[in-house]
């Protein structure tokens, strides 16, 4: 057996170990994806009930006076961008980055100044590749579990909006539709529109919302106070849901990418095995013909 | 007559059942809600929440949130965090409390935001301990 077969054998081994890694990553991502999806489902009832409460409050008081619902002429806007920490997830990050770039360009054409808050390490690219200003970078967990984990970002957003630093705040995330379909989305977060949101957190089928008879509610201490606590919570929950959706999308994108990689490795191993057998066969044939040739010469 | 009771955090539904009465800590003080209460929306303070069902008590540690009492005899609690007494890991809560106290006592000067966060953590852990210990004490009687 020649050098050729040795080289092929080494390649088979290396491709095989790569396949093991991609296979493992695929399985890990599958687990993380399932957990993220379960989390999104769990937040949905909270968000729905919180919106219901807001509509109840709206009946009692003019909620449009609250700073988080106030519409102002837009001079400066911010985009809170949610991406992943790591790559190897197919087109997951590049798609949301491109979508964000498009909306920022659109806003800039209208004469609006735009700044970006990024959540996730890969978000730096919005500056490196597209040249947009980043004002804040938040650490992101690989799998967000608790709502407190998004609190720094949501506090900053609420604070900056109330301080009139920004007149509009957008949320850039990836909507999880199914394991193979996720859509990058940019959604206006603030000013909050006083209606229940359509798609955020709506993984799978929407729940049936029971309609509550609009009786007179009593508010303690008073409606404005309830609103003051409720609205920032709603912002936080929306961000939380967006992060969870992005998590689910990221992990399913990575799962698909890794599955493709494993399949490609499998094909490659097959091909290499074929080549190896061919090389081995020809080496044997050659050896035999050499022996036969030698015997004939005697 | 019973009340449809549900307590939800952004992460999960903590407890959902038909109950007879519930006592909770609101911003204006502790209230007990019985069936046919008038519709009410109120802000909850961090504290213990106790609901009673056919003589049995269920304790929960709740840190802030809202309570909505609806006209159809149902109560919905949107809590920031909530834990049922039996879920509380006493040892972990004790460790967390000690950590918070230790950090607060350290010489290093904390800025007010840090201090507030720590204070909140400490309050939460103390509450968890209180509710958890109470549950442990009455546990043999339930059995």
Account of the protein in words:
The complex is a heterodimer of chains A (298) and B (143). By secondary structure, chain A is an alpha/beta fold. Chain A folds into two domains: 3-27 and 257-293, Helix Hairpins, CATH 1.10.287; 30-204 and 223-254, Pyruvate Kinase, Chain: A, domain 1. Chain A is built from five helices and six strands, in the order H-E-H-E-H-E-H-E-E-E-H. Chain A has helices spanning 3-60, 92-109, 125-128, 151-162, 223-297; strands at residues 76-82, 113-119, 134-138, 168-178, 181-190, 218-220. A five-stranded mixed sheet of chain A has the order 3-2-1-4-5, with helices on both faces. Chain A is elongated and about 110 Å long. Residues 202-213 of chain A have low confidence and may be disordered. Helices cover 33% and strands 43% of the residues of chain B. Chain B has two domains: 3-86, F0F1 ATP synthase delta/epsilon subunit, N-terminal (ATP Synthase, domain 1, Sandwich); 89-142, Single alpha-helices involved in coiled-coils or other helix-helix interfaces, CATH 1.20.5. Chain B is of the alpha+beta class and 143 residues long. In chain B, strand 3 and strand 4 form a beta hairpin. In chain B, strands 1, 2, 3, 4, 5, 6, 7 and 8 form an eight-stranded mixed sheet that branches. In chain B, helix 1 packs antiparallel against helix 2 (112-142). The interface between A and B is medium-sized, with 32 and 23 residues. Strand 6 (218-220) of chain A pairs parallel with strand 5 of chain B.
Count of individual beta strands of chain B: 8
In percent, how helical is the residue content of chain A?
Answer: 55-70%
- CATH first level of the largest domain in chain B: Mainly Beta
Task: Determine the N-to-C terminus distance of chain B.
Answer: 26 Å
For this entry, give a set of tags.
heterodimer; A: 298 residues; alpha/beta; Helix Hairpins; 2 domains; five-stranded mixed β-sheet; 6 strands; B: alpha+beta; ATP Synthase, domain 1; Single alpha-helices involved in coiled-coils or other helix-helix interfaces; eight-stranded mixed β-sheet
């Amino acid at each position: 057996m020649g050098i050729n077969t040795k080289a092929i054998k080494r390649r088979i081994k290396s491709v095989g170990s790569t396949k093991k890694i991609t296979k493992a990553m695929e399985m890990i991502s599958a687990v993380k994806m399932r957990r993220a999806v379960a989390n999104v489902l769990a937040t949905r009832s909270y968000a729905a009930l919180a919106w219901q409460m807001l509509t109840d409050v709206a009946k009692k008081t003019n909620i449009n006076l609250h700073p988080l619902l106030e519409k102002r002429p837009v001079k400066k806007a911010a985009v809170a961008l949610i991406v992943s920490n790591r790559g190897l997830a197919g087109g997951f990050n590049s798609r949301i980055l491109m979508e964000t770039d498009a909306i920022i360009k659109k806003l800039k054409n209208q004469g609006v100044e735009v700044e970006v808050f990024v959540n996730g390490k890969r978000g730096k690219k919005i500056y490196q590749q597209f040249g947009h200003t980043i004002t804040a970078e938040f650490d992101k967990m690989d799998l967000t579990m608790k709502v407190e984990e998004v609190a720094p970002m949501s506090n900053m957003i609420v604070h900056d909006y109330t301080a009139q630093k920004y007149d509009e705040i957008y949320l850039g995330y990836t909507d999880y539709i199914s394991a193979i379909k996720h859509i990058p989305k940019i959604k206006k977060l603030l000013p909050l529109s006083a209606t229940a949101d359509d798609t955020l957190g709506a993984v799978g089928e929407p729940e049936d919302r029971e309609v509550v008879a609009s009786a007179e509610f009593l508010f303690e201490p008073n409606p404005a106070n309830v609103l003051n606590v409720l609205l920032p919570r709603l912002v936080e929950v929306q961000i939380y849901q967006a992060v969870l959706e992005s998590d689910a999308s990221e992990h399913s994108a990575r799962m698909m990418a890794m599955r493709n990689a494993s399949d490609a490795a499998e094909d490659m191993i097959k091909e290499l095995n074929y080549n190896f057998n061919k090389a081995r066969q020809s080496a044997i044939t050659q050896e035999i013909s050499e022996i036969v040739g030698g015997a004939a010469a005697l | 007559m019973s009340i449809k009771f549900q307590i939800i955090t952004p992460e999960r539904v903590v407890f959902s059942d038909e109950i007879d009465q519930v006592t909770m800590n609101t911003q204006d003080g502790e209230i007990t809600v019985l069936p046919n209460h008038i519709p009410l929306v109120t802000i909850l303070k961090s504290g213990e929440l106790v609901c009673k069902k056919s003589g049995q008590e269920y304790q929960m540690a709740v840190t802030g949130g809202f309570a909505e009492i609806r006209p159809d005899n149902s109560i919905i609690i949107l809590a920031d965090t909530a834990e049922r007494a039996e879920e509380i890991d006493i040892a972990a809560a004790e460790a967390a409390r000690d950590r918070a106290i230790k950090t607060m006592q350290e010489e290093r000067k904390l800025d007010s935001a840090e201090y507030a966060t720590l204070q909140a953590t400490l309050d939460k852990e103390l509450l968890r301990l209180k509710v958890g210990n109470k549950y442990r004490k009455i546990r043999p009687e339930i059995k």
